[in-house]
Amino acid sequence: MPLKWVLHWQPNAGTTVNSQILSEVSQCVESMNGAKGGRWKSNLTYYRPILKEQANSAEYPRDFLGISLAEQPNKYYFILRGQRIVLEADSTIQTIMEKLQSYKSRVSLNFEGFQYQLGDFRLRVGKVVPSHSENVRGIVLEVEYLPVSSLEKSRQIMEEFVDIWQEAVSERSLPGHFMHMEINFGEYGLSDHYTSQHTAVQYATVMAQLIATVQSTVQLARN
Length: 223
What we know:
By secondary structure, the chain is of the alpha+beta class. It contains four helices and nine strands, in the order βαββββαβββαβα. The protein has helices at residues 19-31, 93-100, 151-170, 196-222; strands at 3-11, 35-49, 64-69, 72-80, 85-90, 103-118, 121-130, 138-145, 176-180. It has a nine-stranded antiparallel sheet, with helices on both faces. The longest helix is centred in the C-terminal third of the chain and has 27 residues, at 196-222.
């Protein structure tokens, strides 16, 4: 499958993400002659165990992430970041989990927006919003390079494209920038050949970064 990088918006210190920035970013893609396509939506859910007895706590992972991806509607992905484990399951596993009642959803975030085609690249620009709210918590950008599925072989062209993108965004003088987190996929047992499990790991990393950003913003506000 095509390789992709998932970038997230890092706001400048003392600023927050809003829909105006999202609109500017979308306009930026269109100004690069990106052909607007359909909508897309992925979801990430943070699970905690429902412990009947405290003695059982050691038997369960303390928490994990569940991810549904726009590109694989019939699959569901589990990430245990502490143990560096990623698992792929059938999407019906969510129904089974509800019946078992071993874990409960603590936080659920939607990643949703529009996709664009730029030559051999597909871009997905999306807002990050809680499942039952319209408050924008973040912005993500998927950069997908369609001809190649090797992480190493695509590295140079991806870096060059992202550099061009960053330059285009910087011309709009927005209060922040997009960040790409380097991930050692080998720690998760993943190879150089790109799969949807690589995408799931990237979203888990973005989630952790978003939480850290929100927490630091709250801390600044208190100070």
